[in-house]
Amino acid sequence: MASTIASAVLGVGAGAHFSYTSSVAFNQKTRRGSVSVRAEGGINPQIRKDETKVVDSVVVAELEKPLTAYCRCWRSGTFPLCDGTHVKHNKATGDNVGPLLVKK
């Protein structure tokens, strides 16, 4: 049975701003709190802007390689596939975004 995976492509555009809010309520059993992140402004600078929502799906059984990297910085020239452009983006912005790796 083939599984379908929707790639969660996350990234940071040049003009994106983020705000962070931490929750004071903790789950006593797991000792975990929560943090919410909200982007202010757009995080997708130019990829497929003619579409209402950019969503990519992949049938894992159809992947040609045992490991496929998907872009999360929105800078790849082969979007939605990663071409390593995040390295330059990270150096320029101090960000630490990397690809989403899907294993077959």
List the main descriptive attributes of the protein structure presented here.
single chain, two-stranded antiparallel ribbon, 104 residues, mainly beta, 27% strand, disordered N terminus
Distance between the termini: 13 Å
CA radius of gyration is: 16 Å
Largest sheet: 2 strands, antiparallel
Low-confidence stretches: 1-14, 17-23
Helix content: under 10%
Broad shape: extended
Tell me what you see in this structure:
The protein has one helix spanning 86-93, and strands at residues 4-7, 17-22, 35-40, 56-59, 67-70, 100-103. The protein has 104 residues and is mainly beta. The strands form three sheets. Strands 1-4 form a two-stranded antiparallel ribbon. Strands 2-3 form a two-stranded antiparallel ribbon. The longest helix has 8 residues, at 86-93. The radius of gyration is 16 Å and the shape is extended. It starts with a strand and ends with a strand.
Short description:
With 104 residues, the chain is mainly β. The chain has one helix at 86-93; strands at 4-7, 17-22, 35-40, 56-59, 67-70, 100-103.
